[in-house]
Structures
1.
Amino acid sequence: MKNLGYIFIGLAIWILSSCTTNRFHTTRVYEIDFSKFKTYGWLPPVDSLSKDYYNNDIAKANIMSAANKEIEARGLTYSKENPDILFRYIAIVNNKSRLVYSHPTYFGWGGPWWGWYPWAGYAYYGPSVPIGKQKVRYGHIILEAIDRNNKTVIWQARGTSEVDAPEKAINALPNLIHGIMKEYPIKSTK
């Protein structure tokens, strides 16, 4: 019975590790004190290659509402008149390919089943080798902060996730924006 528990734990870890996760990258100008910015505004989004995943009213509304919530949680207030800092976003969806690998072959002894048994040992046969390519579509949301006075980008962060359906990609935008804004130099107060 104890071994059955190990099998379930191993299976759960394998399933969770095979799930896609969001990846985040950021860069900034380190000499700038971001706490001096009190108000923010928006620039129009940069025209991008979003293949209609993020190029619709629902996606735009989800991006803007999630970003506004995250920005305001960092102590900034929206202002149409002379904001201290300007934000804009870029949405990109691109196609890539990745290698698909075979599973290594395991065999063991000590019982009527193939597999690893702690009381009997195991043997390993064959490495995991590439057997083909799989097409994958990635969605990227890039948020940029621009200093209004000198009109230069002072912070940029990108969130990337694997997308396989437009509806799922659009519904996942608030989580992606939340992860992007975790990279902002000022942490959330909420």
2.
Amino acid sequence: MAEDSSKAWSVLSVVAALGAAAVARKGIDTGWKVATGKEPPANPADPDVALREAVAWAAVSGTLVALARMFAQRRAARYYVRSTGHLPPPLRKS
């Protein structure tokens, strides 16, 4: 039973994180276009992208995607607790 519980959490956690990252990415792209009037850099590592723009893009997109994933996984954990009555195995304190 614990193995099924762990697998269910793994699937729920991954789906929540990927969904949140996709939604965040769309919002970040739109926000970048509004703020700068330009498309976001396709590849910030490209030497043709200004260093300042590449650093700004990496900082903004990395931070916002990580925050979106964290909030989604926290919501998934709350759902899991409501459904099972306990924390998912990886989040339980020893």
